[in-house]
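ESCALATION

Customer reports they have been waiting on this structure for their group meeting. Please prioritize. Original submission:
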Amino acid sequence: MRGLWIFSITVFAAMVVVTTWASLDANVLVGFQRLLADRWGVATLFDAYFGFLWFWLWLAYKEASLGRSLLWLLLLFALGNLAMAAYVLVQLFRLKSGEGAEALLLRRTS
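Update from on-call: job pushed to the front of the queue and completed.
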């Protein structure tokens, strides 16, 4: 699990840094317009958002609350991999001592 902690923290930190760096160059809406003007930009957006939906399917399975899973869906669509890393970090933080990948990946019954 240590590797997953390190990876999730690295992704979270990298996304904060690169998002801040990009925001200093241009407003997110300007960047979005540039992205939509390029076919590969559109293809990349489709790829990213379908990836967010795949991740959300697991998240929705894991979460007991429909409201909480829908909130995470909004966060995924707004923040992308930053939200994905945050969700995994929350799940890792909730693990009890000695719990492994099964407890991380599967829905809690209690």
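Sent to customer with the following note: The chain is about 80% helix and 0% strand.
Escalation resolved.
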